[in-house]
């Protein structure tokens, strides 16, 4: 049930290394044999571009149930948390190896916004490398359900007054006996309305030192009466899973602090770095989806008696995109391989060269994806502007990506600083 044309002109050209091919084959087989038939059987909830949203702009319960089913099936097959070490139930893949998994998943899972195919791979809602800092008891309670796909998470970093400047968070954690009381407001929280577990960054009252040394990361069960889901954030992606989150006298136990007071900001950045490291594979996968759409349309659509693909004005953006996808794949895998050799995503203190690589991996593929999506809309013409065309959503996603997990400008600033330009 492959979604790609059998006469794919680039079949076999975007190579996967022999050491990674078996796991990528397993991922593709899972999507084609499990996910696509499941989506087809439940087309009422995902068949159209916005069928997955309710009247309030949030994801429908039926679609979330589909995601949960695919997530659990994937976890049962050992595919959901391939990015984590085997010791915690993950697949033990390096970042370079995981690039090829992400590429495959996003090539298949880009056609509409319901993210059912993408639910097979842990993303924002899944177990992050930051949680490797939990002790054994904490791992059993908080990490294992995420690895096994039984629960989902969100992370509360961004606030109305704290975006790029994470040290400006105003959410507080106050000691209360053997526990903590959290108060504050978080904004633009992906999976905020539906998460089982929230990871909340807060400033610890009474802690001494500069702001970045006074923060803690706290685990919150979202059934806690002090955890409140706020208004939905109806964003450009129309993802249906983003909202404000409020902490109102939210009491948590002492063992719900991750690490120590002072580890909060490094832990938050560990989560952010996980997202940055995943951008290259994500963008390459969506880029290949766009290229598939452009090639198919250019060959099938006729004007003046000939396929539009015979015109150079249509050929050039396709050629440029195919070339640049090759470049991003080589760039991404090379930098990820170099990063793997010097650091881990769960390291709380990243070497200067590692920080530079992560910032490059974040902004450069995103910029290219935005260009590819713009070209795809132009090649498809009026159809490209339509939701049914399947590419306008990627354009919106591409525009969104350049802000979360650190804006393009912040990435360039980091690169400049690591080059001694400050």
UniProtKB/TrEMBL annotation:
Which residue ranges does the record assign to the Acyl-CoA dehydrogenase/oxidase N-terminal domain? 63-149
Query: Does the UniProt entry include the keyword Protein biosynthesis?
Result: no
What is its cofactor? FAD
CDD domains annotated for this entry? ACAD
Q: Where is the Acyl-CoA dehydrogenase/oxidase C-terminal domain?
A: 262-419
CC terms in the record's Gene Ontology section? cytoplasm
Q: Which InterPro entries match?
A: Acyl-CoA_dehydrogenase (IPR050741), Acyl-CoA_DH_CS (IPR006089), Acyl-CoA_Oxase/DH_mid-dom (IPR006091), Acyl-CoA_Oxase/DH_mid-dom_sf (IPR046373), AcylCo_DH-like_C (IPR036250), AcylCo_DH/oxidase_C (IPR009075), AcylCoA_DH/ox_N (IPR013786), AcylCoA_DH/ox_N_sf (IPR037069)
User: Which residue intervals define the domain Acyl-CoA oxidase/dehydrogenase middle in the entry?
Assistant: 154-250
Keywords on record: FAD, Flavoprotein, Oxidoreductase
Task: Give any GO molecular function from the UniProt entry.
Answer: flavin adenine dinucleotide binding
Presence of the UniProt keyword Flavoprotein in the record = yes
Which Gene Ontology BP terms does the record give?
A: fatty acid beta-oxidation using acyl-CoA dehydrogenase
Ranges annotated as spanning the membrane: none
SUPFAM superfamilies in alphabetical order: Acyl-CoA dehydrogenase C-terminal domain-like, Acyl-CoA dehydrogenase NM domain-like
Q: Which PANTHER family match?
A: MEDIUM-CHAIN SPECIFIC ACYL-COA DEHYDROGENASE, MITOCHONDRIAL (PTHR48083:SF2), MEDIUM-CHAIN SPECIFIC ACYL-COA DEHYDROGENASE, MITOCHONDRIAL-RELATED (PTHR48083)
- Protein family membership: Belongs to the acyl-CoA dehydrogenase family.
Q: What is the protein name stated in its UniProt record? A: Medium-chain specific acyl-CoA dehydrogenase, mitochondrial
């Amino acid at each position: 049930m492959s979604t790609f044309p059998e006469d794919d002109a680039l079949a076999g050209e975007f190579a996967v290394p022999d050491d990674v091919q078996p796991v990528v084959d397993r991922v593709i087989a899972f999507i084609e044999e499990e996910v696509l038939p499941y989506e087809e059987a439940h087309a009422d909830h995902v068949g159209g571009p916005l069928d997955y949203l309710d009247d309030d702009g949030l994801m429908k319960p039926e679609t979330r149930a589909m995601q949960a089913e695919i997530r659990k099936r994937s976890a049962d097959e050992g595919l959901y948390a391939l990015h984590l070490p085997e010791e915690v139930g993950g697949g033990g893949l390096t970042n370079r190896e995981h690039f090829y998994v992400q590429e495959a998943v996003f090539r298949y899972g880009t056609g509409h916004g319901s993210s059912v195919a993408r639910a097979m791979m842990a993303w924002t809602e899944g177990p992050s490398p930051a949680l490797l800092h939990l002790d054994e008891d904490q791992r059993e309670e908080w990490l294992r359900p995420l690895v096994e796909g039984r629960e989902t998470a969100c992370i509360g970093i961004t606030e109305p007054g704290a975006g790029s400047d994470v040290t400006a968070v105003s959410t507080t954690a106050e000691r209360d006996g053997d526990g903590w009381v959290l108060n504050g407001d978080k904004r633009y929280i992906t999976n905020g309305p539906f998460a089982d577990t929230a990871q909340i960054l807060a400033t610890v009252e009474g802690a001494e030192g500069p702001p970045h040394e006074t923060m803690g990361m706290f685990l919150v069960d979202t059934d806690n009466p002090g955890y409140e889901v706020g208004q939905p954030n109806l964003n450009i992606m129309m993802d249906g899973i983003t909202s404000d989150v409020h902490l109102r006298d939210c009491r948590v136990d002492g063992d719900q602090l991750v690490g120590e007071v002072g580890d909060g900001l490094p832990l938050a950045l560990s989560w952010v770095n996980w997202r940055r490291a995943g951008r290259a594979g994500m963008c390459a996968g969506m880029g290949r989806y766009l290229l598939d759409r452009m090639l198919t349309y250019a060959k099938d659509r006729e004007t003046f008696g000939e396929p539009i693909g015979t015109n150079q004005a249509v050929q050039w953006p396709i050629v440029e995109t195919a070339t640049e996808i090759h470049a991003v794949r080589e760039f991404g895998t090379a930098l990820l391989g170099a990063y793997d050799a010097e650091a881990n995503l769960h390291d709380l203190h990243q070497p200067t060269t590692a920080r530079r690589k992560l910032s490059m991996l974040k902004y450069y593929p995103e910029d290219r994806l935005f260009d590819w999506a713009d070209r795809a809309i132009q090649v498809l013409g009026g159809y490209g502007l339509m939701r049914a065309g399947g590419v306008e959503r990627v354009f919106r996603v591409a525009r969104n990506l350049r802000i979360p997990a650190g804006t393009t400008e912040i990435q360039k600033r980091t690169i400049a600083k690591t080059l001694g330009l400050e």
